[in-house]
Amino acid sequence: MIPKPWLEKSWPEYVPKHIDYPEKPLYWLLEQAAEKFANYTYIIFLDQFYTYAQINDWADRFAMVLKEAGLKKGEKVALYMPNTVFFPIAFFGILKAGGVVVNCNPLYTARELQYQFNDADARFAVTLDHPKFYPNVKQIQSNTKVEKVFYCNLKYALPKVKAILGSLLGKIPMVKDKDPEHIDFWKAIMNAEPLTTREEINPKEDLAMLLYTGGTTGVPKGAMLTHMNLVANVIQTEAILWPRPQPGKEGFLGVLPWFHSYGLTTCLLMAPYIGARVIAIPDPRAGNPPFTEVLELIHKYKPTLFNGVPTLYAALLNHPHLKKYDLSSINACVSGAAPLPVELKKQWEAASGSYLVEGYGLTETSPVATVNPMKYGGKPGSIGIPVPDTELAIFDIDDKEKVLPQGETGEIGIKGPQVMKGYWKKEEETKKVFNSMGFFLTGDVGHMDEEGFFFITDRKKDMIDASGYKIYPREVEEVLFEHPAVQLAAVVGVPDPKRGETVKAFIVLKPGKTATEEEIINFCKERLAPYKVPKLVEFRNELPQSAVGKVLRRVLKEEEEKKAKAAQ
Fold first, then answer.
1. What range defines the domain where residue 551 resides?
2. In 10 A of CB 163, how many CB atoms?
3. Residue 6: its pLDDT value, please?
4. What 8-state DSSP symbol labels residue 92?
């Protein structure tokens, strides 16, 4: 019997313990919004407002374009662009036509994109008519199965006068040398009738998306997410929101990339379920200094819900002009994708006046699996309790069938309606991450306390082994974040001839602050056991991050391993 103490000891009274999920295709979220909230704003992009009725109509038209182009049920369509108004039109249009969306990281190079197109068997691609995106697709198309490419031009997202002037003055970024076979997305939509018929969808079995993830090992893998996985996770996540959302009154800060499961589910898909508006932000770092445009958009459009990552909250906190901007509209903030340092949580809450809670999930879980009860704030340092109809358990690291008692540390397993079917074309990889009880094994190490709150110690693969001592980077990073001069910190194990591995800290200092290696090490000595104290400290202007803002420890570790080999 799997213990579930959170149900008895920690469950918020406003959250249902069980939900009857409608067996609907994922595009139902938009279609029900177009009925109930037709004239409410869905997307705000480049100061233009787009309603649910408009986005739904254009998605129907793109579905017709795809059908006329020969798309069959279950075929894959790659979507390669940042957050723009075109994204939801293409996304829902693909689903309405019976296709499967393959979200592609906007930071991918042509080589990485080619791997993903081929692995997914993508037959169509939608991209942005922009020098950073379209050329990559054009370059690789002949090496893939992609037959038709659609490109979206930003001039169609501008007021007519601005679009005309921008085109004449050459101020709208676009690619001049296009393949004549490629199709203008907007023109195709405007010349199409809305698709009124639908492919028959089995929400529990049919795929809505292939979302690619590095997972715990190896090359990127496509997590097979069904329509039901994503619909259920939207409803699960909405159930834990506090204050309770009010249709027409909520606004999401769409700063997380929508190609990623976190930004997709908790923002772009959640909004139509509750009738909220979304401020589309293609580049969070835009502005001078960086992140200025994010603050300007918060000040201007008054979002109420902010889903972010620790590096984003840290960047905004340390923005030199933060106090100029009004953040008071924000009622709730959630942090995910990476551990939220307790000190950063305190600082953000003090500066913004809104609470910040940590949640947890993975691409393979659509992604939300746990969150701290938003009404009560939960426990600092904890990833919270499971969302409705979700089980978490701690398994022995060496025996995935053995459930460990409360308080003991092991690998976190997850079971619920939001858990993927498996990895695309990777049966062996799929078998490795599920046990006989149906739990998805996350690769994250943690424990559950007596009240059912879960705590992540670290990733299995990031654990440092120094002279036989097991050191979890997150514990050391928590201490580093307490230092008044530290803005960002990452800790990895680096090769050491005597200890096997030793602890190295990479640090970005706050603007105008100074610190020395000796100061940092002494600070840690006062707060950590000797074997956990960093032996090496390196100061950097920035740390490598994923597109969603997660600090990439593996990149730092690879750099150190290359240095060690070169020195031999």
1. 463-567
2. 16
3. 97
4. H
